[in-house]
Description:
The chain is an alpha/beta fold. The protein has two domains: 193 residues, 2-enoyl-CoA Hydratase, Chain A, domain 1; 97 residues, no CATH class. It is built from eleven helices and ten strands.
Amino acid sequence: xxxxxGGPSGGVDHGRSPLYEALNARRYQRQNLIRDIESLTDRxxxxxxxxxxxxxxxxxxxxxxPFQDLLFDCEPHCSLDLLLQSPGGDIDxxxxxxxxxxxxxxxxxxxxxxxxxxAATLIALAADEILMSSTSELGPIDPQVTIFTADGxxxxxxxxxxxxxxxxxxxxxxxxxxxxxxxxPLLSQLDPALLDFCQKAIARSEQFAEKWLSRxxxxxxxxSARDIAARLTDVEKYRSHGMVIDSQEAAQLGLRVxxxxxxxxxxxxxxxxxxxYEVENYEHNGAKVFESRKVSISF
Length: 299
């Protein structure tokens, strides 16, 4: 893990050696751009940028400490923008990050420049508003269950699929009067504990979405919060966990989305910042960067 505070020298001696400044020039470039964006919005900007191609990119317990450092740079009751890039991860840790955000900031916008999927979509649902553009995508929030093949390889499957599979078997037995042997392999995976876990995981995801939507983004429309939560976990509507929910569809769902043209001056700066993190990931293959105008932590 590496980290630090500060910004570009700008002709001021900060006590850093020339070699140190040269080695960290890209960090200072990004922090300079963060300050420029803050001058346009009059809001604090925090960045949680995961390398979606890295095996450790998912939202997880080690995120809590660097995330707290980001929030120290936002005075209590501040207006905060969170630039969020993540493939998703642990739903319980995602909710802990939400509690941290909402206890610190009186106004929260989540900026999705490229992707905030699964549990990261859940974080976005806890905002007052989501900023998106033509490159932006959210995703379904149906929970995934990891199973293992006969040769020990992990596979992820939607929790709803196990429950639907059991319903299909029940219907087949009811229609045919006997159990088709073709279902034996599936039944071997459908133990009662797994089915109970799947039911609770789906309920947990819907509960998360409904609770935070009704508290903030849809505080005036709690019935819509319930409907949106159910629709985002609907595997009939979203048959792939990776399906794209773009800005237009997010707005049609009823989310409070501000759609920014790609050539909007603010969005162009956000896009530039996004690309700087993409290049950082490509060249150094780190898992995550947590950054603000003062804080910079990567691992």
